[in-house]
Write a structure and sequence with these properties.
The protein is of the alpha/beta class. It has a single domain, classed as Vaccinia Virus protein VP39 (Rossmann fold), CATH 3.40.50. The chain is 39% helix and 23% strand. It is built from 8 helices and 7 strands; from the N terminus they run αααβαβαββαβααββ. The protein has helices at 3-18, 22-26, 33-40, 57-65, 78-90, 133-142, 163-174, 184-195; strands at residues 47-51, 70-75, 97-101, 118-124, 144-155, 198-204, 209-215. A 7-stranded mixed sheet has the order 3-2-1-4-5-7-6, sandwiched between helices. α3 (33-40) runs parallel beside α4 and α6 runs parallel beside α8 (184-195). It is globular. The relative contact order is 0.15. The model is unreliable at 17-25 (pLDDT under 50). One of its GO terms (biological process) is methylation. It comes from Roseibium sediminicola. InterPro entries: Methyltransf_25, SAM-dependent_MTases_sf.
Length: 217
């Protein structure tokens, strides 16, 4: 069995029931998502891709924020995509948001969309859930237009918070197969150097979360 198939089965198992109350609970601890959406600032008529779109929450918020932009979302969990499509239909945004099932680490996963490259690619609390997260970052860079940007927000290492809080949070996250990436900044810097992009990286909320932008060209 391939790693992508194993990951898909794991994510479907984890979110088969959670998807129904995912957004209600996550808004309290997935901090920085709205900052990422505000910082996207895609060009009018542009195309934006979210890798690991989950329930579609970010895509819907971004589509409302940028009404002249087309959005695409990819996720490996069929259950999450079913919920996302329902949410998108309910929001009346099905003409501007397109979903596709696939592996974020596979650069060819979006070929069926007919979009050769994107103005923005973003990851919102996704890399901490993808086993081959480095490959997922590289795949996103491969899909980026000249002049485009990659945006990332995810869990930090809690350096500015009490040790007991970090231990409790990380133990709880592990129960959902979430692993905050201690090497995230280093990996982003390496990717920037390999691809000629420029990295801007900063911790948020005393390093509860980390936010990054990679600019191409």
């Amino acid at each position: 069995m391939s790693e992508a198939v194993e990951t898909a089965r794991l994510m479907d198992a984890v979110y088969r029931h959670q998807r129904h109350f995912y957004d209600l609970t996550r808004k309290y601890y997935l901090l920085g998502r709205d900052l990422l959406i505000e910082e996207l600032r895609p060009p009018s008529g542009g195309v934006v891709l979210e890798l690991g779109c989950g329930t579609g929450r970010n895509l819907i918020a971004a589509a409302k924020r940028y009404p002249e932009v087309r959005f695409y979302g990819l996720d490996i969990s069929r259950h999450m995509l079913e919920t996302a499509q329902k949410n998108i239909d309910k929001a009346g945004l099905s003409e501007r948001i397109t979903l596709i099932e696939g592996d974020a680490a596979n650069p060819a996963a979006t070929e069926g969309l007919g979009v050769p490259a994107f103005d923005r690619v973003f990851y919102s609390y996704t890399l901490s859930m993808i086993p081959i997260w480095r490959e997922a970052l590289a795949a996103g860079a491969a899909r980026l237009k000249d002049g485009g940007r990659i945006h990332v927000v995810d869990f930090g290492q809690q350096k500015g918070l009490p040790g007991w809080f970090r231990k409790l949070l990380f133990t709880w996250l592990a129960s959902f197969h979430v692993s905050p990436r201690a090497e995230l900044q280093m990996e982003l810097q390496g990717l920037a150097e390999r691809t000629g992009m420029k990295l801007a990286f900063r911790p948020l909320y005393r390093d509860y979360a980390e936010y990054a932008e990679l600019s191409k060209g």
